[in-house]
Structures are given as structure tokens and as C-alpha cells.
């Protein structure tokens, strides 16, 4: 493979992986701290993208739309936690899965009612709407580099808040012993609400910044969700480090799987079966490590 | 995981003539990160004997039982059953070799009746439960074994009661009954008397005396009266290691043991 | 759920009665409703198969549609072009395919606990979905049409003709009764008791000497094979298979049926499938955005009705009994 093509795919793979990490970290956060599995998490990726698209169209500027969309996502998250999620805390995971699956249907249909079923697109916003030339014929979009940078920045921000601030300390304490924290006078309910809103805001934010480079389409949330599951399973539940490594692995495997040609015994495997690479990777890792790379056995 | 012999009989094998040692350990050790819960413990449980393991709280006694039953893998050392190494085998394989254990924290099937608890335990003795046709209730041998186990543990009248509705003491009795229903030759009992009233304790001690002749019994207990009246051999553990091992008289007379207990706040009564 | 349920003959009698009533449907109803009832029977089989995992073993599989869809595709793929397949070979083959797939996936997945299991089953189902969606094996997005239904000929005798929608209905009814009785038998067998024990306390089962991995795997295979029965019937009924038959929306729907009816019983999933299909019909009549209503219904059921309709009935019955005293 030509070096520049390789570089482009490498950068794409990393960018995709970092975007996945953003979404997956929201999922892991909510599960690790609140014990809630939210399969509608992917729907917020979709909601973020659609919010960005519709607000940008109305306001005329992506950058103005972004903070508004983020604020709206947070509000939706808070409302959802209050309305639905808080009834699920002590329940078996089965019911959490079922309930949030119902939410997926609701959100999909709301999206259909509000914004229709057509595939939308969003122009890459200035000042990042240019490409860095690599060779005479190849260049790389700066916006994608910006996405990677933002994801990394958010990841560091998350780490900082959770590990180094008082709020983070309360959150971590609430994860290990909810009742104890409550008896200390800290409003655990509020903390959970904040964590949940933050979790889905992460997914929504990822959807927003990804919107200009991917299609804003129905079903985009579901696909992301399932890949997130694979990330969490490979990386190990509760491990942010694992989620990062797994996201990057998946980003690279998926990206290269689409461009590499692989034929075994006359059967064309890649790129024909590229959408399966991620799952094959998952199966392989699970056979080796049933709890994921860095997971603790449940 | 230890390699075990290629030919492996899941039935009782003859113990070598001259020794009645059924279950023994050799420098058994278990670490949890930086903490050593069990340190180089070597002991033996003999057929026809009750071997009690005592010691202050945190001495590693429950961990030891978990190592013997296969609930926990060992960090180092060996566990031998009739001279054959079983270190590293999973709990269910060890159970099938005739080692039964009861739990300190009652570990029963709460949604089932007391009878069903024992019946399911007895069913484990079948070579395989991959049987799909006849109803389980038609296996009369298992039903009888369950009834016998319940009766032995003093629960003959309570078979039809759902386990979650039993009193705490009765649940402890059920815990033992289930272990008995699998007809093991080795009994590992983790605080069998915990949570029992005086009358129930006396029945349990009487039961253990009865079982002693045909079993090798290793038990962890805090009830010193029961221990001293029942045990043939005592092993005292402190901080994960064996402090001393011997007959009840030897242990009672030992200054080191007195120190360990008085230091830890528990006195041995005469 | 108590350990001894469905005492002997009352359950079988009830089933016989219901089957008898249902046998009259093609004689009195028009084609749409006959096919609708057949669909309910198919979903009932599918739901019972999932309940084996959900309600009886405690394994929450979110990818169960994989085994349903694969059986349908098996029929579609071995049906020669412009010819009909042989029912007596294609039916066992389809079930075998589902069972084999369940064994392969189960082997990897059954050792996992809790939330991992849920996510991994979903992921594997998606993998299969993409296999059929993206490749030419399964005709891609459009699926495969089964122009000619399988033929059930033995020598010169043809016991039923699957081109006739009433015959398809009766086949579905017969298989439903068969599956119900079979599962009932298995659940009462020593194997069934092991499964119940694993759900109640897997650790203790291992401590008693049961190698729980193999029992869970066997149950997973049984559930997969049974789902295959439903999938084959669906392919016969609709005459087309498409990737949605492996999709997670179907996995979610069948999960909903089991919980709505009541987990851990055989009648629960049947009831749940019936209610769900009726609701779907009703909601679709109300608005084109009926998914909204479905979704809201699912959310409410998950929160308010953990024991399903059967559980609701049970607690109401208990309350009435108490007021009586």
C-alpha cells in the first residue's frame, strides 16, 4: 500500500476510534457509576447529529448551533433521568435493556416526526473546511484532525474532572457506595442525574461533530451503539483505559478492513466482509479473555 | 492449573493401606494482591476423624476451605485427595470426586422447597443430568436420598416449605442437608453451627458424631464447646498460617495458643 | 416461581382445549385473520424459545433473532430456483443450522456473565445481520424470495400442501402444540431442574458438582433450535426472507413478548406474543408513527409490569384471596 494512502487510512482509523471512544465513555460512565445499561445511548448520537443539522440550518452557523445543541442534549438527559431512568436503578439489567429499548423506538419515531426520514448532510464548517495537501493528488481534511483533537481534549477533561475534582470524587464515591454517600448528606440523586446527562451529552456531542463528515441518517444511532457495545466488551466494562484502547483498535481494524484486499482459499474476505471484522475481532479477544482486555470479572 | 493424571476415576478409589488420610494439603498458599490470606498450610483430614480448624477472626480459615473445595484457586502449594493431586481443579470436579462443602453464608436455592433443594443436590450424583425425557420427580432413588438428608439434618417435617420461608436456623440445617445429599466422603463445613440455637446446635453436633465414622470431616468453627467435644484433631490458624496442630488436650495446654486467643480477644474455656 | 408448577394433566388439558378451539379458525375466519393467527403461533414458538434462556436459565440474550432468521435463510438457500424444497429434508436441516449456530456462538458467549452476555449476544446477531445484508449470499438488503413453498411429499402421498394458507396455519398449530409439550417435558426433566438451579444459584450448582457451562450451552442450543422452528415457519408463511429476520428489532420485540406475558412460565410467552401482535395491529391502525406507541408501551411495561401479565394475574388473585379471608 502506498505510504500516503496508508497515512490517510491511519488518520481516519484513529479519528473514528476517538469518536467511538467519546460515545463509549459516556456509556461506560453511566454503567460504571450508576449501574444502568442504556441501549438508547446510541439514539443520542443520532439526536446530537440531527440537532446540529437543524439548528445550524436555522441559525446559519455550525459554531453557534453547537453550544445550543449541547445545552439541549443536557436538558433532555436530565429530563429523561427524572422521567424514566430513575425507576431502573435497583432493577435487573434485563428491565433496563427492555425499557431503554423502548426509548429507542420512541426517539426514532420522534426523529421521524420532527425531521423526517431523509438522509441529511451538513457542510464542514469554516475555518476547518480545507485540506492539507500530502501529495500532488492526495490531501487530508483538516476537520477530521480537529475531530481527533477535540475528542482527545474531552477525554482529558473527563479524566481531570473525575480524578481531580471534588465533584469527581463524589461521583466515584457514589459508584462504590450509594447509601453511604447519601448518608453523608450528598445528594446522590442529583449526582446520578448529572452523570446521566453528562453521559448522553457525550454521545450527542460526538454525533454533532461527526455530522459534517458522515451522513445524518435514520439508524445511525443504532449502528454506533452496537459498535460501542463491542468497544466496552473488548475493553472491559468499567475500564476507561480499556475503552480507549479498544476504540482505537476497532477504529483501525474497521477502517483498514474496508480498503485492504484479503483473499483466503479463493474466498474474497476483504473488503467484502469488512463490516464483520469488528465482530470477528471481538470473538477472538473474548475467547482469549472472557472479561475483555482490562475488565474485572463481574 | 496443575496437570492431573490422564486416567481419572470419578468414583471412590481405595486409599492406600496403612493411611487413612483422605484430604491433605502441602504448603497451601493464597495471596490476594499484597495480602497473604493463607500461608503454607499443611494439614490432613483422615477417614473417621473430625479435624477442626480454629483461630481468631481473619485467620484465613474460610479461605482455606475455599481452597480445598476449589472455589478459589491456590497461589502455591498442593491439595491432595487420597494421594492424588487435585490442586487447580474447578469446584464442580472436586465435588464429583466426593468432596462436599457447606457455606458459612447460607448458600441455598431460595425459590425451591427444602425437599427440592436436597433432591437437586442428590441429582448431582447422577453421572450426567443431560436427561430430557422422564420427569425429575420420577427418579425415586433421588427422592429417597433427599428425604434421608432432610431427616438427618432434622428437617423431615419441613420438606415442603419454600427455602426462603424457613427460619435462619432451619436454613443452616438445609445448608448441611444439601451437602449430605450428595453423599460425599469428605465433608468441608464452614461454621455449620453459626446462627443456630442451643437445641439445633446439639442436634448438629450429634449428627456430626454419627457421620464421623464414615466420613473425613474438616470443619471451621467458633463454638469452642462443640469443637472440643467433637474434634479428634485441632489446627489453630493465626494470620493465615498454622500456629499449632494436635489433639484437643495438647491445644488446650498450649501457651502459644492461649496467647494467640487472649491477644485476639477470645479466650478458650475449659 | 415455585419449583413444582404445571401439575400433570390440567395443563395438558387446557392446551388441548385451546388447540381445539384454534383448529376452527380457518373454518370460520377469512384469509387475513388465518394468517394473522398463524403469525401469532409462530411468534409464540419464538417467544417460548427465548423464555428458556430468559426466564428459566437467567441468560438475557439480546440476539435471539439470529437463530430465527438463520433457519429461514437456510430454507431459502436450499430451495432450488424455480423448484420447491422437500419439507422433510429442509425442515430438519434448518433446525440443525440454527442449533449448530447456537452451539458455535454459545460456546464463546455462555461463559460470560450478566451485562457482557447481553452485549455480546447482540453483537454476534449484528454480525450475522451484516453477513446477510452486505453480501450476495442472502440476496443483500432485499432478501430472497421463496417462490415455491416446500413440498411435503412422501412417495405418492402428500399430507399437506404449504401453498394453501390454511395448511400453513395447521402446520404452525401442530408445531406449536408439539413445541409446547416438548419444552414442558424438558423443563420437568433432570436437565430442566439443573437449568432452574442455575438460575436460582449457579455458584451452588457448581459446588454440588454440576458443570454448569455445558448445561447452559445445551440450553442455549435448545433455545436456538426452537427459534429455528419458528423461523422456518415464518419463511414458509411469508415466502420471503430478509435481514430483518436477524435484526435486533426482532430480538427486542421477542424479548418484550416474553416479559409482557411473564417470564419463567411457558404460557407467559404465548400470552405475551398474542397481546403484542394484537397491540401491533391496533397501533398500526391508529397512526403511521405507531413505533412511538409501541416504544412508550415497552417503557411502561418494563417499569410497571416486571412480572408480566401472568404475574399481574397472580398478584391480583392473591389479593382477592386475602380479601376473602
Layout of strands and helices, then pairs:
The complex is a heterotrimer of chains A (298), B (270) and C (325).
Chain A: H1 3-34, H2 41-59, H3 62-83, H4 93-115, E1 131-133, E2 139-141, H5 142-164, H6 166-176, H7 178-183, H8 188-210, H9 220-235, H10 240-259, E3 262-264, E4 267-270, H11 277-288
Chain B: E1 21-32, E2 35-41, E3 44-46, E4 49-54, H1 61-69, E5 76-81, E6 84-85, H2 91-96, E7 99-102, H3 114-123, H4 140-152, H5 168-181, E8 186-190, H6 198-212, E9 216-220, H7 224-230, E10 233-238, E11 241-246, H8 248-253, H9 255-264
Parallel strand pairs in B: 4-9, 4-10, 7-8, 8-9
Antiparallel strand pairs in B: 1-2, 1-3, 1-5, 5-6, 10-11
Chain C: H1 9-23, H2 25-28, H3 31-57, H4 65-78, H5 87-109, H6 114-134, E1 144-145, H7 165-188, H8 190-208, H9 212-238, E2 240-241, H10 248-261, H11 267-286, H12 290-304, H13 308-324
Antiparallel strand pairs in C: 1-2
Helix pairs in contact in C: 1-7, 3-7, 3-9, 3-10, 3-11, 4-5, 4-9, 5-9, 7-8, 7-9, 8-9, 10-11, 10-13, 11-12
Which pair has the most extensive contact?
Answer: A-C, 48 and 43 residues
Distance between the termini of chain C: 24 Å
Please bin the fraction of helical residues of chain A: 55-70%
- The H-and-E topology of chain A, N to C, reads as HHHHEEHHHHHHEEH
Poorly predicted ranges of chain C? 1-6
Mean pLDDT level of chain C: 89
Mean pLDDT score of chain A: 85
> In this structure, how is the largest beta sheet of chain A organized?
2 strands, antiparallel
Query: In percent terms, what proportion of residues of chain A is strand?
Result: under 5%
Count of DSSP-assigned helices of chain C: 13
Describe this structure in words.
The complex is a heterotrimer of chains A (298), B (270) and C (325). Chain A is mainly alpha-helical. Chain A has helices at residues 3-34, 41-59, 62-83, 93-115, 142-164, 166-176, 178-183, 188-210, 220-235, 240-259, 277-288; strands at residues 131-133, 139-141, 262-264, 267-270. Chain A has one domain (3-122, 142-288): Orthogonal Bundle (ABC transporter involved in vitamin B12 uptake, BtuC). Chain A contains eleven helices and four strands. In chain A, the strands form two sheets. In chain A, strands 1-2 form a two-stranded antiparallel sheet. A two-stranded antiparallel sheet of chain A has the order 3-4. In chain A, strand 3 (262-264) and strand 4 (267-270) form a beta hairpin. The N and C termini of chain A lie far apart (43 Å). The model of chain A has no long low-confidence stretch (mean pLDDT 85). Chain B is globular and about 60 Å long. Residues 1-19 and 264-270 of chain B have low confidence and may be disordered. By secondary structure, chain C is mainly α. Helices cover 74% and strands 1% of the residues of chain C. Chains in contact: A-C, B-C.
